[in-house]
Fold this sequence. Notes:
alpha/beta; Arginase, Chain A; 8-stranded parallel β-sheet; globular; HDACs; hydrolase; histone deacetylase activity
Amino acid sequence: MLSIACAPLYAHPLPANHRFPMLKYELLPEQLVREGTVPESAFFHPELPSEATILLTHDAEYYQRLQQGGLTRQEERATGFPWSPQLVEREVTILGGTVACVHRALRHGVALNIAGGTHHAFRDRGEGFCLLNDQAAAANYLLGHPELGVSRVLIIDLDVHQGNGTAAIFAQEPRVFTFSMHGARNYPHRKEHSDLDLPLPDGTDDTAYLALLRNTLPRLLQEHQPDFVFYLSGVDVLATDKLGHLALTREGCRQRDQYVLQTCQQHRLPVVVCMGGGYSPRIADIVEAHANTFRVAADLWG
């Protein structure tokens, strides 16, 4: 049984170069329902999380300025978005969706956020189209509620960009293991230190990528012994992606998702999946690659 969080669409006017990537959040649910992968009843609109939940991860002064439109021009430029109340509401809702997915994954084994994966957000600032770090917040929520029975978390970040914000947030937290497999020469230019970083050369193809992943993930599970997994399944690893510089095919990307999710299922590890990035020139390439993630989850847990 799949549960899928949907954030509100961002209706505030955006620059033209930002509008295109946002289309996937509208088209992906339509595609999944139309083809019968999931029923409409699988989607839910999450409630806004409490401020206390957000402040488990984010600095109070930063969050207050974010809410009130008090970011400096330099800080706003770093996020890549023009500030608006609607933008903040959407980012808070995305975070709430990932937190809500935690409970559904604990019950059913898996839950997915149609957005999320805002891994460039730090405790006290936003970067790279990320204002609040949803997976970090959900991991801290889990650890802050011991009655949920989770004491060790693994974050598997397979977006093409390093999860620098997530790495920094958990740099001193041994209960959360951060694993980022990303393009070596890609954004961010100044990388943070994850617990395990695997930087990939430009042009890495399906064979090399999948072999490295299959040689790494079992060892991480054995050594860290997590109770819960967050998976960031960005599709900017595709050869068609204009920002990614890797060379995965859509089938290779699907096999990546299948391997991660099947491994979680085999180890009886609840997993929350967030979509992350995707910037191929054809919107169909982005939507199809993201849809494959949901198709794999539906096949495994449907």
